[in-house]
Design a protein that fits this description.
With 356 residues, the protein is an alpha/beta fold. Helix content is 63%, strand content 8%. It is built from 17 helices and 5 strands. A 5-stranded parallel beta sheet has the order 2-1-3-4-5, with helices on both faces. Helix 3 packs antiparallel against helix 4 and helix 13 packs across helix 16. The longest helix has 24 residues. The relative contact order is 0.07. The model has no long low-confidence stretch (mean pLDDT 91).
Length: 356
C-alpha cells in the first residue's frame, strides 16, 4: 500500500469514527477500529491518526460551540472504550524495553493523551503501568517505590495544574525516578516542562516513545521547587492563591456596580460568572507561579474565542481585569500581567475590526 493510499485510508477511518462517536454509536465506533486494524493499518496510526485525530477534533468542535459538553464527554468515553479493544484484537507484544509509569497530574481529568501514550508504549514493547487521571503525588511515589520504573511519563492538559505538576516532578525525582512531561499544560514548546525541572519533554506520543528508548538523565539530588523558580520568594503567587475566593467576590460585586444588567442575573448566571472569574484568578496565579505573561494572555485569548463563539463580546473581559488590578494594586507582578493582558485583548480586538 502506497503512502498516499495509507493516508487516504486513515482519513476515511477517522471520518467514519467521527460520525460514530458524535452520534453515540459505540458499536460502529468499535467496528471502525477493528476494520482499520484488519485492513493492515499500522496500529500506532490507528491510535494516533484515527482515534487521536478524532479526539482533537472533538475538542475543537466544543470550543467552536458546535458540540455540547455532554457530546464531548460521550465521544471521549466511546474512544476510551474503543482503545480497550486493542488488547483483544492484536497480538500482545512481549515487553522487551524499559518499564514506564504513565500518570496524569493530580486534578487533571483529561486522561486521553496519557491513555494513547500508554498504548503506543505497549505496542513498542515497553512495560507500562497506566495510572489514569488525577493521580495524587503521594500515591504516585508509593507506586514508584513498589515497582521501580525507569521513568514517569507525566501528562497535563490544563496549565492551572502546573504548580501541582511541579510538586509531582520534584517528588518523583526525590524517589530517584526521572520524568518526561507532555501535554498542552507544559506549553507548545515544552517551556514549562524545562522550567519545572523535568528531565525531558515530548510534544506528542510518538516523540515520547522515541525518547524513552534512551535512558533519561538521572534526577538531581536534594532538589527543591524554589530552586527552579526563585521569583516565588516575593510571595505573590501564594498570596493571590490564598485570597482567590475574596478576589472573586470583590470583582463580582464590582461588575454588578459597573454593569447594571448583571443585577438582574439569575442565580445560575451569577454562578457561571463567578466560575469564569475563578478561572481567571487561577490562571493569573499560575502565570505568577511560572513567571510568564504569555500563559495569562494565552488563556484570555482562548477565553475570548470561546465567548465570541457563544455570542458574548470578548470586550466583557476588560472590566473584570480592571477590577482585579485595583484589588491587586500592591502586587507589582500581578498588575503587570493584568495590564499586559488588557493591552493584548485591545490589540486583538483592533486586529479583528481591521480584518472584518
Amino acid at each position: 500500500m502506497s503512502t498516499a493510499t495509507r493516508s487516504t485510508a486513515v482519513a476515511e477511518h477517522a471520518e467514519r469514527l467521527w460520525d460514530a462517536v458524535t452520534t453515540g454509536d459505540e458499536y460502529t465506533a468499535g467496528d471502525v477500529v477493528v476494520q482499520a486494524l484488519g485492513d493492515g493499518t499500522d496500529p500506532e496510526s490507528v491510535l494516533l491518526d484515527v482515534i487521536g485525530a478524532v479526539q482533537r477534533r472533538v475538542g475543537q468542535e466544543w470550543a467552536a460551540n458546535r458540540l455540547t459538553v455532554a457530546q464531548e464527554h460521550a465521544a471521549t468515553a466511546i474512544n476510551d472504550r474503543v482503545i480497550a479493544t486493542f488488547g483483544y484484537v492484536l497480538a500482545r507484544p512481549e515487553p522487551h524495553l524499559g518499564r514506564v509509569t504513565v500518570a496524569c497530574v493530580d486534578g487533571e481529568w483529561h486522561a486521553m493523551p496519557a491513555r494513547l501514550l500508554s498504548e503506543v508504549l505497549r505496542l513498542r514493547g515497553f512495560q507500562v503501568d497506566y495510572l489514569g487521571a488525577q493521580v495524587p503525588a503521594p500515591h504516585l511515589v508509593a507506586h514508584l517505590h513498589r515497582t521501580g520504573p525507569d521513568a514517569v511519563a507525566l501528562s497535563g492538559s490544563l496549565a492551572t495544574r502546573l504548580p501541582t505538576a511541579h510538586a509531582t516532578i520534584t517528588a518523583c525525582q526525590a524517589a530517584a525516578t526521572p520524568v518526561i512531561a507532555g501535554g498542552a499544560a507544559f506549553g507548545p514548546d515544552g517551556r514549562y516542562a524545562r522550567l519545572l525541572g523535568a528531565e525531558a519533554w515530548a510534544p506528542d506520543a510518538r516523540t515520547a516513545a522515541d525518547r524513552l528508548t534512551r535512558p533519561l538523565p538521572r534526577p538531581q539530588a536534594a532538589h527543591q521547587p524554589l530552586d527552579d523558580l526563585p521569583h516565588l520568594a516575593d510571595q505573590e503567587y501564594t498570596l493571590v492563591t490564598r485570597s482567590s475566593g475574596r478576589l472573586v467576590k470583590a470583582v463580582l460585586a464590582g461588575l454588578e456596580e459597573r454593569i447594571p444588567a448583571m443585577r438582574n442575573y439569575t442565580d445560575l448566571q451569577r454562578q457561571y460568572t463567578a466560575e469564569d472569574l475563578a478561572h481567571t484568578v487561577e490562571y493569573l496565579a499560575t502565570a505568577l507561579y511560572v513567571g510568564d505573561e504569555e500563559l495569562f494572555t494565552g488563556f484570555l485569548t482562548w477565553t475570548a474565542g470561546i465567548l465570541t463563539a457563544r455570542g458574548v463580546p470578548a470586550a466583557s473581559l476588560v472590566p473584570a481585569l480592571d477590577l482585579l488590578e485595583a484589588e491587586l494594586r500592591d502586587f507589582p507582578r500581578a498588575t503587570g500581567l493584568l495590564r499586559a493582558a488588557r493591552t493584548h485583548l485591545a490589540e486583538a480586538a483592533t486586529g479583528s475590526e481591521l480584518s472584518a
